[in-house]
Amino acid sequence: MFSFESLFAGIFYLLVYLLSTFSIFYAFLIIKPRQLSSYALLEFKNFTCLKLINPLLLIMLSINFLSLAGIPPLSGFISKFLILISLVETNNLKLLLFLIFISLIAAYYYIRTIKILMFTNEKQPKFLSEIPYLSGVILVVTFYFNFLVGLRGLPHASCLRLQNMTGAASR
Predict the structure, then answer these.
(1) Which pTM was predicted?
(2) In angstroms, rounded to a whole number, what is the distance separating the alpha carbons of residues 4 and 14?
(3) Is residue 99 within 8 Å of 87, Cβ to Cβ?
(4) How far is the CA of 166 from the CAs of 29, 34, 111, 171, in angstroms?
(5) What is the rounded distance in angstroms from the CA atom of residue 71 to the CA atom of residue 89?
(6) Tell me, what's the pLDDT at 104?
């Protein structure tokens, strides 16, 4: 029922989800509002002008949202795929179908957020464009983690699978 691969998949999924969520919230927090009211940050429509001010930050946010949604070349897809493979191997099909259904619902909301951020027209920017250097470095590192792990894949996962296959064959 329990295997090392499923433990690895769960920890990797947790790591990817934490980094992606941290990157998204951090990007929203470092944007400084022009108005003095702190309640302006609570309105999501105020972030629709981000494409006018900092399109690179918007692309990085979109990649992180797509990673959370589980779109294929990104690390979120690989982590969800490893979870689903471990569920198939343990023959836990009810939980597998439940997770697929929940992932589809979550993907709708993540992609809807990208649609709102990218395709809503806002004429007047409400935010300053300066982002501190260290904040930019943190965002770039988390972005590259999501992007490059998805493109390169996980070498450790394939090594683990080979070790288990050769261990089972030698028994």
Answers:
(1) 0.77
(2) 15
(3) yes
(4) 48, 61, 41, 9
(5) 23
(6) 94
